[in-house]
Amino acid sequence: MPYAVRARRAVQETVSGLPREFWWLWTSTLVNRLGAFVATFMALYLTLDRGYSATYAGLVAALHGLGGVVSSLGGGVMTDRLGRRPTLLIAQSSTAASVALLGFVRDPVAIAGVAFLVGMASNASRPAVQAMMADIVRPEDRIRAFSLNYWAINLGFAVSSMAAGFIAEVSYRAGFLIEAGMTMVCAVLVFLRLPESKPAATVAETAAAPRDDSVSLRTVLRDGPFMSVVGLSFLVALIFQQGAVGLPVAMGEAGFTPAEYGMAIAVNGVLIVVLQIPVTRFIQHRDPRRLLVVSSVLAGYGFALTAFAGSLGVIALTVCVWTLTEIVNAPTQTSLVVRLSPVHGRGRYQGMYTMSWSVAALVAPLLSGFVIDRFGAEWLWGLCALVGTVAGLGYAVLMRRVSEEGEKTANEGEKAATETDGDKDQDRDQDQDQDQDQEETRTAGGGLRVADGVRGESRSGGTL
User: Fold this and answer.
1) Segment 259-303, tens digit of pLDDT
2) How far is it, in rounded angstroms, from Cα 225 to Cα 342?
3) Which residues does 389 contact at the CB level (< 8 Å), separation at least 6?
4) Under 8 Å between Cβ of 368 and 43
5) Do the beta carbons of residue 220 and residue 348 sit within 8 Å?
6) Exposed (0-12), middle (13-18) or buried (19+): which is 130, by Cβ within 10 Å?
7) What is the torsional sign of CA 266, 267, 272, 274?
8) pLDDT, tens only, 203-256
9) Fewest CB within 10 A of the end CB: N or C in the chain?
10) Does the predicted model carry a pTM greater than 0.85?
């Protein structure tokens, strides 16, 4: 009974105090992810239903990712200039239209072009969602709000992966139309329930704010330790991307059905929903170097185990392995990025870090398609193990360097503090000598000269 009471209290503390607008935005996010189909099953649709090669499927997935990279900047500009609500309406309406169109086009060039448009439209709403959430939620509640939004994303992904797998066995086109319909439902929710949240003073405050050019993109690129993190993050992202691009193609060639892939990949979303918060609380005081090294290596070898998986149950176990490493790696790596980012340049640093995942989303489909077509899926899983090992070694070297620089900075600070304390002691001795001289002077009747000396100089011209 006490456990049930504590659990109920924990749930109440997690969801209470957030504004009604947040929950409508949260609902829109959940509905959007419940209808997700294209990103998960595009590779299976192209290779099994349309009969294209894995290389072509990888090219289409890469174009979809490229559209997302382009619109991440455009969506941010629209969010600031047009507002959060108009940007959401335009992005979600465009996504619904382009996804529906993708289910009907047949020409390979047209498929690639529409996939690019889908990537642009679907990703353009992300800056608006994040900005609106920051607008309507109090600063002290934002971490909790973003965590709940992340939870909704993964819950929707887990459910949609299983459902879409069964839908694909009936009709891929039905999956496209269902996603288009649910995305339009999101747009209707935004139109009916979410008012514009852009602060009225934002433009004026931005114009009046002083510019800070002390940290530029060149500064970020010249930051060796941070760019090392970006490079290692790119390697780790290449590994995790295989769950969406390499695994479905390999399972399809091995004779597994789309529904079986949906059940396997749904394990990823379910575990993240269930374990993300408790695992994060467990590792938050652990050695970050060890966490990054172990998670990177195990991620690679977790995917490598897929080469030996001959049944759905074993594949699901491999998904458990690399999902646990994802849960550990994500918050630890984010903490490292914050640690290495200067406060006044955090936006550019975070942008560069995010770009590593966007580029990986472009490269991973091309890489996996090429390797599977030319050498076989076993080589892809072996390559994952190699990349994970390289990333783990890189983190070990990087974290040692960061620790040494941190200790050096701490030692310099301690030395400076010691010197400051020494100066204070010396000043205190001088003040005591000065007080003694003043007392002797007053005794001799020279109080006026001492008073003048206290304000600036003594008769001899020396500074007191």
Assistant:
1) 888 888 888 878 888 887 777 667 766 787 888 999 999 999 999
2) 13
3) 297, 300
4) no
5) yes
6) middle
7) positive
8) 444 444 444 445 566 787 888 888 999 899 999 999 999 988 889 888 888 888
9) N
10) no
